[in-house]
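The following record pairs a protein chain with its ligand, adenosine-5'-triphosphate.
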Amino acid sequence: MEKREDNKLISVCSFKGGTGKTSISINLAKVASEYEIETLLWEMDKNPGSLSSIFDLDPNTSIINAIMHPQGLHYYINHVKNEKFDILLGPSDPIIGEEIDDIKKLSEVLNLAKNSYKLIILDLGPYLDKISIQLMNESDLILLIIEPEVSSISKARVNIDLICKKTEYDIENKIWTIVNKTKVFDNITISQIIDALKLPFCTKIAYDITYRSQMNRMESKIPETKLYKGCKKIFKKIYPEAKRPEKGRKLFLKKTKKI
Ligand SMILES: Nc1ncnc2c1ncn2[C@@H]1O[C@H](COP(=O)(O)OP(=O)(O)OP(=O)(O)O)[C@@H](O)[C@H]1O
Ligand SMILES: [Mg+2]
């Protein structure tokens, strides 16, 4: 796949379900787009993901259509209402999902997407398969989402060891660990998690008891929850130079354009 200097492909993964991959992908896409980075959130889960229901999108416009007609990619990309980022949905059911069996089928879509987006965030499924491993290998950065509990940590370590053993991919060097859903009385500390994983640590995001209800109540924009604030920290580590556009300056540019 083409590698270009000015765009980034980021995989968001975990090897256990429900750790917060999709929530973190959504919020990271929101933050990046607010910094005027053209962002595509790409659902790469073979099982039906939750993005179509969260954003009320047509589940029939998906990666499957895009694979069949890569040149028509823009027809299958969804613009998120009141936000500045776009979404490419995953397959609408796991049987259709089986059609994504070859990285070559995805390469053309991914290369075309790279022409239009500076940042592509891949929200991967909670399982290990050939396509996910290849996509992780193609990525510039892998965000590994861990919960502060033993099974999430050990599954991650075992699966990363397996990838390194079975392939020649050097994925370990581009993994950043995010510990999500931390609580005050967790019986495992961040340093114990990092010692066990032996991977670089990016940040922790606290368990936010109100997160789900805030998202369910979402009417227009994605709410600025604790998860959104956590994703701001992640974003700043990925793009330390990025500056949020000043509103005043944007207005000035609009004015001069009109003249
Ligand atoms: N920091 C957090 N605080 C509170 N709730 C959270 C947090 N992060 C995620 N959640 C909740 O946890 C649940 C699972 O989150 P999410 O769907 O993002 O996980 P996932 O890893 O994408 O799951 P899957 O493996 O099924 O794709 C959701 O109900 C979400 O609202
Ligand atoms: Mg998910």
